[in-house]
Description:
Shape: elongated
Strand order of the largest sheet: 1-4-5-6
Largest sheet: 4 strands, antiparallel
Amino acid sequence: MRRLAASLSLIAIAGCTVGPVYRPRVAAELGVPDAYSLPAGRTPEDLTRWWQRFGDPDLARLVEQARAANLDLAQAVGRLRQAREALLQSRSQLLPNVSGSGGYSRSQPIVGGGSTIILPDGTVSTVGGGGRDSFSLGLDAQYQVGLFGEVRRTVEASRAEQDAARFDYAAVLVSVTGEVARNYVLARGLQAQIANARSSLALQDDNLEIAGFRVRAGLVSSLDVEQARSQRAQTAATIPQLQQQFDAAVARLGVLTGQAPGTLRPELAAARPIPGAPAVGAGIPADVLRQRPDVRAAERTLAAATARIGVARAQLYPALAISGSIDSNAVSLTGLVDTITGSLFAGLTKAIFNGGRLRSQVRGAEAAADTALAAYKSTVLAALEDVENALAALRAAQERQRQFGIALEAARNSAILSRTLYRSGLTDFTTLNQQELALLSAQNGLTQARADQATALVSLYAALGGGWDEATLPDGRPTSATPNPANTGAR
Length: 491
C-alpha cells in the first residue's frame, strides 16, 4: 500500500493541467475610466455600516432586523451552502474511493449426512455433521488519476463558484439594506406630506369660515364660499391617498424584516423627521472592482467558467484509473489474517470516436467563458452607472432643496399677506386661494427634495458597495441556526 500511494503521488505530480490559466482583468481592460464625470471626492470612506450615519434609531433597528431575518438573505445562504458542498464533493475526487466488505456464513448439516456449502471465494466445500463457519473481509480502492488536470480544474471551478456565492450573498445584503432605507425614507416623507396637507386644511377651514362671514355680511357673493369648499375638499382628498402609500411602505418594511406586512404599523405610526446624513467621497471608478460585491461575484463566475474550459479539454486526452483490492477468507476470526490476497489494476482509456462531442464541449465551455467575461464587463459598467446616477441625483436634490427653501419662505409670506388683505376686503378669494395652493406646493416640494436627497444618499452608499464586510461573510458551513428540512417536516 505504501508503494501504491507513492506511485499515485508520482503520477499526480507528473500530470499536467490543460486549459487556460485564469488572469484577473485590470481596470483598463474593463473600460473603467480614471475619474467620474461628476465631482465625487477622491477619498473613499468606510461604508460598512453606512445607515448609522443618518442618526435615526428606527432606521438602524429596521436595518439590523432585515439583515438578520430577511428571507432573500436566507435563500442566498442556502445557495452558498450548496456551493460549499459542491466544492467538498469536487475535492473528494483528489482522493481514492475506499470501500470495505465483510461476511459470515454457517452451514448446518442434515441429520445423518454432511452438507455442501459455497464459500465467499466461490469454492464448494462439503463438511460433516459438525457444521462449519466461514468469515470473509475485503477492502477495495479506486482512484481516478487526473493526468491532465481535470480534477484540479474542477476543484478550481468549484472554489470560484463558492466565492461567487459568497459575494452574491453580500450583494443581496447590500440590496436589502438599501431597500429598507429607501422605504423608511419614503414612509417618513409621506408622513411629512400628510402633515402638510392637514396644516393646509386648517388654514382652508379658516378661509371657509371667513368667506362665510363675508357672504352673510353681503360683502361678497357665495362664489367665495363655494371656492373655499371645493379647495378644502380637494386637499382633504389627498390625505387618504398619501396614507395608502404610507401603509404600503410600512408593509414593505415588514416583509423586508421577515415579518407580516402590518407588524410595523404601530411602531412607525408616530411621525419622525426625514433622516439626513453627510455626503460621502466616492473615490475613483476603479474602487468598484473591490467594493461592489456583485462585481466581485461576476469576476469569480468568470474564473469558474475559465477553469471549466480545462475540464472540457482534459476529456480529449487519455484517462488513467487505478483500482486495487485486498481479501481474506477463513473458517475462524483468528484465521482472517493468515491468508490475505490482493490485486492491483491500472488502465488507460482514450476516446477514439465520439462524433465530435468532446470538442463540442470544449467550444461550449469557451463560449460560456466569453459570456461570463461580457457579463463581468456589463456588471462593472452598470456599477459605474449606478454611482454616476446617484451623484447626479444627489446634486439635483441638494439644489432643489435650496430653491424650495427660498420658495417656501416667499410662499409663506405671500399667504400671510393675502389672508390679511382678504380679511380687510382688499383682495378677492381667488388670489388668496392661489397663494394658499402655492404655499402647500412649496411645502410638499421642500419635503420631497429632502426625501430625494436622503434617497440619493442611500443609492450612493449602495452604488459604492457599502453595507458589507468581506471578513464577516458566511462561508456556507452548517450552524445550529441553519434550518434542517428533516427536522421541520419538509419533504
